[in-house]
Amino acid sequence: MPVPPRRLILLTLLFALLLPFPVQAAPVQQTQGPSTPIYGVIGHFERVQGQPFPVVFVASDGTRLSSAGATAQVQQQIDVLTQQQPAKTAQVWGTRNYAPKPDTMADLVVTQLLVEGDTAAPAPAPANLPTAVVSFSMVNLYSTPAQSPSVVGQARAGEQCTVKGRDPSRAWLLVDCGSASGWIDKRLVAVSGDLTTVPTTTATIAAKPPVSAPTPTPVVTPPPMPAVFNGWRTYYFNNANLQGNPVAYADSPEINFNWNYGSPDPAVPVDYFSARFDRTITFPGGTYEFKATADDGVRVYLDNDLLIDEWHGATGQTYSVSRSLSGAHQLRVDYLELVGAASIRFWYEGAAQGTAWNAYYYNSTQQRTDLLAAQAEPSNGSTQLQRNWGYGAPCKIVFPSDGWNGRWQGEFDFSDGDYVFRAATDDGVRVYIDDTLVLDAWREGPVDITNTFRGVGGGKHRITVDYYKRTGYAYLQVWWYRSGGPTIQP
């Protein structure tokens, strides 16, 4: 509908009156400075106190920028990096905010970061990682979560370490103790925090490089050795191979130790250490059984002759060997601890047995002209004469391993009656009662022979046993019992 001419004139006049007074827009108040994207800026993160944003990104040119992650995931990554000592180099992508800006806005908002040495941005980690406090005087940190001699560092009692990971079996923890990082047996620490928040990994850890020029390794001066030992001379080494100088000494009345997950001395780590015990002992004539129970390895020497050789990982296994001895002999026990629990016990049996035999050893399979040794020896209870030399000989210092013979003579009590005599040997054997031949198997190879001697009179009778060994394995068993009584087996 057309506007009436009268109304159109009035509108035109009104518009003309307003023209001399132009309309001005209200000024816009600027609330923040310009923002600029950044790409791959190199620097590191530091934590500061008393600031609205407690993390500062220090760029390679020295510029310090208050920082915040664009997401909770990125912020967790930043928090983890602030705990690294020494600080790790990182590249960051995000937004740089310039002044003027409110205090509630960070100078740098990080959307992505890449840590030096990584091929991708690190996986998110919880802001509050669990901690592990070392429970023993000295523990080793390893490159892998397993029994490995590759030590990448050490930690001491009371030291607090950050737990960064765990292996799939949950028996080992990946920890950062500040001066060193590596894997540790979970049983050696007290853990605070939730281990389910740390990732499962089997990463191999390398030793941290020195942050400055290396200094020469100081020479470890061992403590003074006691002037007099009343028991076992004991030497402890901070390695698994008895190498170098001992780091601790002790005078041990016996070898019977159970350190569990600890160690013998503060200077000795709880795993991968070794020890040596030696002592000279005078033995009454007899046959002795030497026994050792170890976790892990053990070696036993008699006059430098290796009796037991079990130098390996083990869990409380017992080993034994028998020898006939008389007089003073030197014993040495070497011990190896790998990882886990540590224990060693060594002892011998047989000295309480009464002397029953006079033994004579000759350097020939048949002739008794070249006497090598003569000594008193005990019996063995129901099996009156029992020896097992294996591939050795009764006295290796003066004996050949093959080509020798022996004679045993002793007096024993008998009641009236018939007696069964039996012998099991390798090689030949002959048994006499009062010079009467009872058993005759004078031949090579395994022998098992039995005979009954009738009408033995009551009282003491002399028993003589002749034996020879040509080659191979050597053992001798001779025993007797009254006919009609219980059958006795060795």
CATH class of the largest domain: Mainly Beta
Helix content: under 10%
Q: How many separate domains make up the residues? A: 4
How is the main sheet built? 8 strands, antiparallel
Question: What topology emerges from the helices and strands here?
Answer:
Layout: H1 5-18, E1 35-47, E2 55-59, E3 64-69, H2 72-82, E4 90-97, E5 108-115, E6 131-134, E7 138-142, E8 151-156, E9 160-166, E10 172-176, E11 181-185, E12 189-192, E13 232-237, E14 248-252, E15 255-260, E16 273-295, E17 297-302, E18 305-310, E19 317-337, E20 342-349, E21 355-362, E22 371-378, E23 385-390, E24 404-414, E25 417-426, E26 429-433, E27 436-441, E28 447-456, E29 459-469, E30 474-482
Parallel strand pairs: 3-5
Antiparallel strand pairs: 1-2, 1-4, 2-3, 4-5, 6-9, 6-12, 7-8, 9-10, 10-11, 13-14, 13-16, 15-20, 16-19, 16-20, 17-18, 17-19, 21-22, 21-24, 23-30, 24-29, 25-28, 25-30, 26-27, 26-29
Structure write-up:
The protein folds into four domains: 35-115, OB fold (Dihydrolipoamide Acetyltransferase, E2P), CATH 2.40.50; 131-197, SH3 Domains (SH3 type barrels, Roll); 232-347, Sandwich (Jelly Rolls), CATH 2.60.120.260; 355-482, Jelly Rolls, CATH 2.60.120. Helices cover 5% and strands 49% of the residues. The chain contains two helices and 30 strands. With 490 residues, it is mostly beta strands. Strands 13, 14, 15, 16, 17, 18, 19 and 20 form an eight-stranded antiparallel sheet that branches. It has a six-stranded antiparallel sheet with strand order 22-21-24-29-26-27, with no helix packed on it. A hairpin with a 7-residue loop joins β1 and β2. The N and C termini lie far apart (136 Å).
